[in-house]
Amino acid sequence: MTTSQQGLLPTTRRALLHRIAVAQSDGRTPSLAAAVVRGGQRVWDGARTSLDGQAPDANTQYRIGSITKTFTAVLALRLRDEGLLDLNDPLEKHLPGTGAGEATIADLLAHTGGLAAEASTGPWWERSPGSLRPELSDVLGDEPHRHPVGRRFHYSNPGYTLLGALVEQLRGAPWEDVLQREVLHPLGLERTGVRPRAPHVGGWAVHPWADVLLPEPAQDFGRMEPAGQLWSTTGDLARFATFLAEGDDRVLSARSVREMRTPAAPAEAADLADGVTYGLGMQLQYKGGRLLAGHSGSVPGFLANLSISVADDVAAVVLANCTSGPQVSAVAGDLVRIVAEAEPRIPEPWRPLMHVDPAVLELAGPWYWGTNGVVLRPRADGLLALDPLSGSGRRARLRPNGDGTWTGLDGYFAGELLRVVRRADGTVDHLDLGTFVFTRRPYEEGAAVPGGVDPEGWRGIG
Q1: Quick count: other Cβ atoms within 10 Å of Cβ 85?
Q2: End-to-end CA distance of the chain
Q3: Burial of 53 (0-12, 13-18, 19+ CB in 10 A)
Q4: Of 409, 405, 407, nearest in space to 420 by CA
Q5: Dist CA 55 CA 48 (whole Å)
Q6: Among candidates 176, 141, 158, which has minimal Cα distance to 103?
Q7: Which residues share a beta bridge with 352?
Q8: What pLDDT sits at residue 280?
Q9: For residues 357 and 34, what is the distance between their CA atoms, to the nearest angstrom?
Q10: Which helix H or strand E contains 98, and what residues bound it?
Q11: Are 292 and 298 within 8 A, CB to CB?
């Protein structure tokens, strides 16, 4: 990929550099590397280091921890899209005998399977060899569950170990090989893999009360690889961010990556306050009026974050080589905000529709459910948009079913059927959306409004 450093204004580039410089200095990390993506291209790279003349670049590997989970989720969604499984299938159907098979594939992807947060046997898995846990039973232990299945969000590394084992079961090959063949190679992520390849940085612990360092061991996680093994670069993760925003039919469609970015786990009260939730292998955060999708990662010696604002068409990657230090998710979010606010996305030119069905055009305009006004608009993508006239209220996109009916895709009306009810002369009488009757005028006289309309009509008082 050709990197254009001229893609951003000098003031924007300086603001980005200032943000990561503060993060590296205040966070006391040996090094920090970052990148910003806009319009599918990497438009800015930055790095700070404590070693003169040895600043990392977009080709330098860091360990990315739990961002690995998003890669594993992509493999699981590929199996779904090929018809090899359904997300509502219990794990037991495809991978029997684990003791956690009541959880569905969707539960594991969204961390709602009720499983323990960490490997249940042996020492802390991130600082001990994976050879200590050669089998799934060594990861799950005798009591894998901590909560009822499907009831709450509880982050689980063993859950993604199970997803990796599922991939191996259905593909008949190691998770590492499947990932390389089906994701890394097609997307051109040549500097991403399960083990470091030069140039790469080492992982460090920074003493909390003194400016001294301690090297962290880099363990191979074995069975736990699908939860946090990968090494990558800001350059590769920039490409991955573009894929997660737009899709790539060689790997996953735009529709499937959008599904990954859709909330799939019930939020705890604290999560609601913080504006965070979880999709299918992706963390979601609503911050400062902006929805960010992506994932964080941390393993001993490393911190990582990838954050994407699809609405702003901006993504950011931040990597650091310390066990604790800068809040990389906040740094990445700030990099997105800086670009989005300093150089807002320029919308595409308005263009008229190439073609519109007269029967669809007939639906355009205002409608009323009781006294609540909405407007229907045909969209260029073939959908109908339903929006409240007041600016607040229920809104939805609706897709055509090919028989004159439409199905809601969003919010309250998701999955609900819109029927166009016509009079004997073929003109539209009203719309029926999940039993809600919409008429051209509020409580239109003679329309099929449930409960009828008072024959004396609208009136004043007195």
Answers
A1: 19
A2: 75
A3: exposed
A4: 405
A5: 6
A6: 158
A7: none
A8: 98
A9: 48
A10: none
A11: no
- The pLDDT score that the predictor gives to residue 339 is 97
Are 51 and 30 in contact, with CB atoms under 8 Å apart? yes
Among 221, 212, 190, 211, which residue's Cα sits nearest to residue 300?
A: 221
Q: Give the DSSP H or E segment for 193.
A: none
- Mention every residue, 6+ apart, whose C-beta is less than 8 A from residue 218: 63, 196, 202, 203, 301
The string of pLDDT tens digits covering residues 167-209 is 999 999 999 999 999 999 999 999 999 999 999 999 999 999 9
Beta bridge partners of 308: 293, 315
Phi, psi of 89 (to 5 degrees): -65, 135
Find the farthest-apart pair of alpha carbons in the chain and give their distance in angstroms, rounded. Answer: 86
Residue pointed to by tokens 């306050």: 273
Strands 31-38 and 302-309 come out as unpaired
Instruction: Output phi, psi for 429, to 5 deg.
Output: -90, -50
The position carrying tokens 């859950």 is 159
**pLDDT tens per residue, range 313-362:** 999 999 999 999 999 999 999 999 999 999 999 888 999 988 889 999 99
Question: Could you give the CA distance from residue 416 to residue 435 in angstroms, rounded to a whole number?
Answer: 9
Contacts of 4 by beta carbon, 8 Å cutoff, 6+ apart: 41, 42, 43
Let me know: does 125 contact 150? Beta carbons within 8 Å. Answer: no
Cβ-proximal residues to 299 (8 Å cutoff; 6+ apart), any chain? 63, 65, 126, 203, 228
Q: Which of 240-244, 333-337, 393-397 has the lowest mean pLDDT?
A: 393-397
Per the CB < 8 A criterion, the answer to whether 201 and 60 are in contact is yes
More confident: 6 or 292: 292
Beta carbons of 184 and 176 less than 8 angstroms apart: no
Q: Nearest to residue 64, comparing CAs of 219, 187, 234?
A: 234
Residue with tokens 């929006």: 387
- pLDDT tier for residue 34 given thresholds of 50, 70 and 90: very high
Cis omega (within 30 of 0) on the bond before 199? yes
As a whole number of Å, the CA-based R_g of the chain is: 26
Tokens matching residue 295 = 């994932």
How is residue 412 written in tokens? 């309250």
pLDDT of residue 5: 44
Strands 62-63 and 372-378: unpaired
Decide if 335 contacts 45 (C-beta within 8 A).
Answer: no
User: What's the confidence (pLDDT) of residue 36?
Assistant: 98
